[in-house]
Amino acid sequence: MHHRNAPPESKRPGVLRVSPKPKTETSPHPADLHVGRQVALVRVQSDISQTQLARSIGISFQQLQKYENAKNRVSASMLYEIARSLGVPVSRFFEGLPGNQTSPDAPPVPVDERIDFIVSAEGRRLIEGLMQLHPRVRDRVSALITVLGEELPVLDTDKGS
Question: Which of 32-46, 76-90, 94-108, 121-135 has the weakest average pLDDT?
Fold first, then answer.
């Protein structure tokens, strides 16, 4: 009896061979960045700390930081819990995302560079340091920063003279 050899696997019709994706350092998807920034924005606008929000949804504040910085993707169920805890609809985190406008007249949510700073490592360290200060000292540091911010443009124009 004559046996035919089966064709090599790669030649079989209907078989799709997919090689594993190489592990590389890639940038987060723009949608993940947007959602993370929106979570941070809503949290800050709600005057809720990362620790408070993380505790209310049952995760560590480090994990919340990773969500806000798009180091980790937020699952649908976690996004639901975050929205519920912040008292906003889940859709709030997608507002302003290109291609997600419900109406052509809807203005995009402005990107606020302050949020980028607040969720950065430097911003978190600064805020954590400020929170350890006595409220009266914190108020004085805030006033000093305000005065410095007002004086720097004056100093820059003086240099040019």
Answer: 94-108
Roughly how many angstroms between the first and final C-alpha of the chain, as a whole number?
A: 101
How far, CA to CA in Å, does 19 sit from each of 12, 22, 65, 108?
A: 16, 9, 32, 39
Q: Where are the alpha helices (DSSP H) in 47-120?
A: 50-57, 61-68, 76-86, 113-118
pTM for this entry: 0.54
Contact 136, 128 (CB under 8 A): no
Rounded average pLDDT over 59-76: 93
% of the chain with per-residue pLDDT over 70 = 71
Which residue carries 């209907």 as its tokens? 14
If DSSP codes are grouped into helix, strand and coil, which group holds residue 2?
coil
Rounded Cα–Cα distance for residues 120 and 61 (Å): 14
Tokens 């976690």 belong to residue: 78
Burial 50-75 (b: 16+ CB within 10 A, else e): beebbeebebeeebbbbbbbbebebe
- Give the model confidence (pLDDT) of 5-23 as tens digits: 555 544 555 555 554 444 4
